[in-house]
Amino acid sequence: MKPIQLISPVDGSVYAERVPLTPDAAKAAVARARAAQKGWAARPLEERIALVKAGVAKLNEMAPVIVEELAWQMGRPTRFGGEFGGVNARTEYMSQIAAETLAPKVVEDSDKFRRYLAREALGVVFIVAPWNYPYLTTINTLVPALIAGNTVVLKHASQTLLVGERLAEAFHAAGVPADVFQNVVLDHATTEALIGARAFNFVNFTGSVGGGAAIERAAAGTFTPPGLELGGKDPGYVRADADLDAAVDTLMDGAMFNAGQCCCGIERIYVHESLYDAFVEKAVAWVKALKLGNPFDKESTLGPMANKRFAKVVRDQIAEAVAAGAKPLIDPAHFPADDGGAYLAPQVLVNVDHSMRVMMEESFGPVVGIMKVKDDAEAIRLMNDSPYGLTASIWTRDYDTAAAIGAQIETGTIFMNRADYLDPALCWTGCKDTGRGGSLSYLGFLSVTRPKSYHLKKV
Ligand code: NAP
């Protein structure tokens, strides 16, 4: 098998290289996961929860290594630490609600009948994970899947090959059996062939729309349910009554954090005409204060994009928009670290419209377009004019209006006065091309279990 190379965005070097499993070795790994599942599910729930939490605790102990590796693998500045805050909060919340969510729901317990609805583990869960938040996106499914009694096979992104290894190392050190959670290195053909051969009972895919479509095609006819958490083009809307400074600060951070490589990053902003000039001026100042550079430099607040091919997509979108009349407000010379490759100067574009790719297609980089709107109706129309629907962020002091606007937006999550955040108690989900299904919250457990009805007549 051809080795998979992880090219570091820091300096273009080959940071890691792994040979993917052959199709036979991959099948054998899944067979081990299948054989281990019933025994794992038979353990008491409290024991599974304790082992999963111990695995996450071990992961925390590895923080210094993990933070450094993340910078090498995908360029995030080390000053931001790892993803431990979210990993711990999500693990804690899903552990807390597990007993109640998974408990049988009794509808009758009389001298004649005992009838109840139970939830049963699906079997072997397959996680296909992306590189952009490589620990968080995996944890969202890994934790509830294991707690619910499934075994898990993880295939991580080529850009973050070491993340799956670290997760497996931590969970195994904590006592989770090797066959209950396996990290495997797979190429696309073997990944799709396994899905097509009904190897799994559930596939959670987080990644691009194209990748999601390939997974759905691979699963066609196998009745393997795919959970698809795909791309986004998330809007922010700043109403006339917004707290302007807070809106600028949160929306620009939402657009630029992680070099814009966040599924729920802010990619387009609509501002009421009364605040538009002030918003744009402050947004430009906010971006100019960023420091683009080597992620190991303590001063850097913006690292390289994870791969120079991702930066090229963003450069092309910006160039096309500018050729079509958009105005770039940031002079790239302000960011001397821009090397024409993975290190990309952030950009703020005005004079944009929805005929431009930069306002319609996912950029997944440090660029944002800002448009002026005259009222809520225009903002709602523009926010909905997108193939995606992950989150939308509304800035206002009026709670009722935010909720009313939210009801008209085609999206998975509505934020008021915040953005770019996952609440473990709320379902992480999307509509339109952003995907199907949901993770986190009590609904996250429903994705990795199936209902089982018990209708017991007493004699
Ligand atoms: P990607 O290229 O689609 O890859 C995601 C994962 O799927 C990787 O492990 C990749 O493996 C694998 N993969 C891709 N195509 C495949 C195929 N045809 N067959 C088998 N496996 C395949 O996405 P990415 O670039 O890693 O991630 C960025 C995307 O993820 C963005 O669109 C972002 O919006 C989305 N995302 C969404 C969410 C959400 O919650 N909705 C969260 C995070 C990211 P290789 O790496 O080996 O190619």
Q: Determine the number of helices (DSSP H or I, runs of at least 4 residues).
A: 15
| Rounded Rg | 23 Å
Low-confidence regions: none
Return the CATH class of the largest domain.
Alpha Beta
Query: What best-fitting shape do the alpha-carbon axes yield?
Result: globular
The side-by-side strand order for the widest beta sheet comes to 12-13-14-11-10-16-17
The CATH homologous superfamily of the largest domain is termed Aldehyde Dehydrogenase, Chain A, domain 1
Helical percentage: 40-55%
Count of structural domains: 2
Strand content: 15-25%
Q: How many angstroms separate the termini?
A: 61 Å
Based on DSSP secondary structure assignment, what is the total number of beta strands? Answer: 22
Structural category: alpha/beta
- The CATH topology assignment of the largest domain is Aldehyde Dehydrogenase, Chain A, domain 1
Main β sheet profile: 7 strands, mixed
CATH architecture of the largest domain: 3-Layer(aba) Sandwich
Mean pLDDT figure: 98
